Amino acid sequence: VQLQASGGGLVQAGGSLRLSCAASGRTFNPYRMGWFRQAPGKEREFVAQIYWSGGGASYADSVKGRFTVSRDKAKNTVYLQMNNTKPEDTAVYYCAAGISWTSWGQGTQVTVSS
User: How far is residue 48's CA from residue 63's CA, in Å, rounded to a whole number?
Assistant: First the structure.
């Protein structure tokens, strides 16, 4: 399974951005997919996840109410809608898949200017 993340860029604080992560390869039916982020000098942290079958989602407290994770099973793609962005959201965002997060995408840079 290969994961390709896209959609990062520069956005002003309060603005919106949508990240996408498309999966390719053998038959794709993960237990879950999710997003993580890593800011300069910090450890990678969990952002959001969605269960592939049922669609249930959960979020880090820092993004709850601002970010929404969704998936399109027909396209093998997971999305992260980022609204009301803050400078502290600046990071490289990674998508991941699997019950133990065994598959990872290459990361996409998100920069939120104040």
Answer: 8
From the CA atom positions of the chain, what is the Rg in Å?
13
Q: Which string of DSSP letters, residue by residue, matches 46-98?
A: EEEEEETTT--EEE-TTTTTTEEEEEEGGGTEEEEEE-S--GGG-EEEEEEET
Q: Using one digit for the tens of pLDDT, what is the confidence trace for 60-72?
A: 999 999 999 999 9
DSSP-derived letter for residue 108 is: E
pLDDT digits (tens, 9 = 90+) for 23-66: 987 778 899 999 999 999 999 999 999 999 988 999 999 999 99
Query: Do residues 47 and 61 touch, judged by C-beta distance below 8 A?
Result: no
